[in-house]
Design goal:
By secondary structure, the protein is of the alpha/beta class. It is 39% helix and 16% strand. A 6-stranded mixed beta sheet has the order 2-3-4-5-1-8. A 6-stranded parallel beta sheet has the order 11-10-14-15-9-16, sandwiched between helices.
Length: 709
């Protein structure tokens, strides 16, 4: 082989999951091996040895360190797959539980690890014990399962499974598409639906040579990453590993041409943001050369905007990236409103300041019947959301979801108060976020009559937290045509906004909505507790295409979450610090750990306590810090992020639900119910940020919203 020949080493996604469970010193040795493989191979510094007990000469081992070996598959002269790492004397045993090959239906290279059940009762069954209970896949013949795309070599491992837990345990070691097929069948999805949604769209139209591994490795559906320089960084990347990996079911959503607005929903970890990023990248690549059209990728806050920019830059060359604006919606609205209206008022995004101003207006007017919180919501959710600019229109307007009925005389009083409030805002040089969006939408809508639009395509991430005026602005920013708006979100993670119908806002997703149900981030153990929390939650009453959490599940397994009660806040802080120290001592990277709480008050104390214990810690605000440190933030600050390990604190009954929500209990039953729903969603967000381990700590009595232990 020429000294200059390219040498590629591929790392399967499933192996990356397994490697992260190994001791730190083995992960470090693996990282070093990956980094040096190509160079060492070119200068004959790697000694590949056959596995004597295996007839297939393509299977080799190479030294990882004194005690461990890398198990490799040689696809051709220049290309290898790292199948596993194992102690020196166990390579042969490990090979027996790894199934690999080219899938004859999908034409991708597949690796499956069939020892995920070693700790389950299945591992202890005798030769005939698997027939004691019906297998969960017994309703299907081998021919049917093969027709769906399951390689025949996998069937002996799948047939004995007789419970959903066993299926999910094994699914962690399977290729994601095969895991989706098996889990769907085992959880009651009918055969024809699996065929229509998974197999047919992903099936290869070409003749497939199952012996050509090198060709299969280049198939985008192969869940491997090649390392000329990149694979070696996979383990170093820690919790960010595979953040941009797109599995085949998501690829179909990315590639489809939609005849209008489209939406993808799903629980935490199902890949909504990854789909949004790849969708943005595809639209940018497909813009005609010389086109003046641009693409907007937007979300609701600065930190998520920064994260999207960072991840998108890994997908695109600078020339293509330059066609995309990544922006948070409120900043964009302020820029447009300032540009087109000439207004220079101070923007106010803080609810507390707006609520206090409402209270002053009510006090000055001597208004005894309406509360400040009610008036703020009425102004936002009815008047601004409906772009209502006159009393006549307001008197006849519908008020969906507001609960408290208002007669005509009451509405007239409300309108008079709104006019006083808006005059006060103007006099004090203040603009609320909704006013800014409304002004921007009206000005941009007028501009659109000239035929000019700012964007050709818009992609929205974390869409559940956008308000009606946000959507009205977005609708004016691009023409109503194919692939105009692509929306990614999860209604059960809504923590800022009340639910709202989309169709009246000019965004009709009928027939163009897809719900992702398989989590590739959060373990079944963590997800089970989070699902208990949401067991009483209902989909949006105003979302005509609402989804629920039915069928939402994980293919990952891990430790049971820990719930720790402490007598006081000082002991609570100590318990959190002790947990973080234990994780760091166990080899966890500091920036793969998140510590979160309901509000900002306690953050400085936790940062100081961690630093005093010798652990680097930083408060996370608008952007994720680049330094190696434990991230300490509010639960709201965790939105859109993920950590290997999360410690949630401050969720005692006296602190959560938060005071602004509990104050509504005796004043506005509808607002109180909506506030509790958002508090529950916030807790759901916190619990599901953890990929591997979760610890929940409180002092005194636990919050009534905490999932049952």
């Amino acid at each position: 082989m020429s000294d200059n020949a390219d040498v590629a080493l591929y790392l399967p996604k499933q192996l990356n999951r397994r490697l992260r469970k190994l001791p730190p010193e083995i992960r470090e040795s693996t990282t070093g091996f990956l980094a040096k493989f190509s160079e060492d191979f070119r200068r004959n510094a790697i000694h590949l040895e056959p596995i004597k007990q295996v007839k297939d000469r393509r299977l080799r081992t190479a030294r990882l360190n004194q005690a461990w070996r890398a198990i490799l598959l040689q696809a051709d002269d220049h290309e290898f797959v790292l199948l596993d790492v194992a102690p020196h004397d166990e390579a042969y045993r490990r090979i027996k539980v790894i199934s690999w090959g080219v899938n004859p239906t999908f034409a991708n290279f597949e690796v499956s690890y069939l020892d995920e059940l070693e700790q389950s009762p299945l591992a202890d069954r005798g030769p005939t014990a698997s027939h004691a209970h019906p297998g969960i896949l017994d309703p299907y013949t081998d021919a049917q399962l093969t027709e769906l795309g399951i390689r025949p070599e996998l069937l002996p491992a799948l047939r004995p499974l007789n419970s959903e837990d066993e299926v999910l345990a094994l699914a962690e070691g399977l290729d994601d598409r095969i895991a989706q097929i098996v889990v769907d069948l085992a959880t009651g999805v009918d055969y024809d639906t699996v065929m229509d949604q998974i197999t047919r769209p992903g099936a290869s139209r070409d003749d497939i040579d199952v012996s050509d591994i090198a060709a299969a490795l280049k198939n985008p559906a192969s869940q491997v990453t090649s390392t000329d320089a990149a694979v070696a960084r996979m383990l170093d990347a820690g919790f960010e590993a595979w953040q941009l990996f797109l599995h085949p079911e998501q690829q179909k959503i990315v590639d489809r041409i939609y005849n209008g607005p489209a939406r993808v929903t799903g629980g935490p970890g199902t890949g909504k943001t990854v789909v949004a990023l790849h969708r943005t990248a595809r639209l940018a690549r497909n813009l005609p050369v010389g086109s003046e059209g641009r693409i907007l990728l937007t979300t609701y806050n600065k930190r998520l905007k920064s994260d999207l920019e960072r991840r998108l830059a890994k997908l695109l060359d600078p020339e293509v990236l330059a066609r995309i604006d990544v922006d948070n919606i409120d900043r964009l609205a302020l820029e447009i409103a300032t540009e087109l209206t000439g207004e220079r008022r101070r923007p106010v995004w803080n609810d507390e300041e707006l609520r206090e101003l409402w209270q002053r207006v009510l006090d000055e007017a001597g208004e005894p019947d309406f509360k400040a919180g009610f008036m703020l919501d009425e102004w936002r959710q009815v008047i601004l959301a409906g772009f209502i600019t006159s009393k006549t229109v307001y008197l006849a307007a519908e008020r969906p979801g507001r609960g408290t009925r208002l007669g005509k005389a009451q509405r007239a009083r409300v309108w008079d108060l709104v006019e006083r409030y808006q005059s006060r805002l103007t006099a004090e040089g203040i603009w609320s976020g909704e006013q800014i969006c409304m002004a921007a939408a009206l000005a941009e809508g007028a501009r659109a009559w000239t035929g000019r639009r700012r964007y050709r395509h818009i992609v929205v991430d974390e869409a559940q937290d956008l308000s009606a005026v946000h959507w009205r602005l977005l609708r004016t920013l691009c023409p109503e045509t194919a692939d105009d708006l692509f929306i990614a979100g999860d209604n059960f993670q809504r923590i800022y906004r009340a639910p709202l119908p989309m169709a009246p806002l000019g965004i009709d997703i009928q027939g163009r909505s897809r719900n992702l149900t398989l989590s590739y981030r959060t373990t079944r153990e963590i997800l089970g507790r989070a699902m208990t929390l949401m067991s009483g939650a209902e989909p949006d009453a105003f979302d005509e295409h609402a989804t629920d959490l039915a069928g939402y599940r994980s293919v990952l397994s891990g430790a049971e979450p820990r719930f720790i009660a402490t007598p006081d806040e000082r002991t609570e802080t100590r318990a959190v610090v002790d947990q973080v120290m234990a994780w760091v001592d166990d080899g966890a990277e500091p920036n793969s750990i998140g510590v979160c709480m309901p509000n900002t008050r306690a953050i400085p104390g936790y940062v100081a306590a961690l630093e005093a214990a010798g652990i680097s810690a930083l408060e996370v605000r608008d952007e994720l810090p680049s330094e190696e440190a434990v991230h300490v933030t509010t639960i709201n600050g965790l939105k859109g992020t993920e950590y290997h390990r999360v410690a949630l604190t401050g969720v005692g009954a006296d602190r959560f639900p938060r005071r602004f929500a509990t104050k509504l209990a005796g004043t506005d039953s509808v607002a109180y119910a909506q506030a509790l729903e958002r508090e529950r969603n916030l807790l759901f967000v916190a619990l599901t940020r953890a990929c591997r381990e979760l610890t929940v700590v409180w002092s005194g009595e636990p919050s009534p919203l905490l999932p049952r232990r």
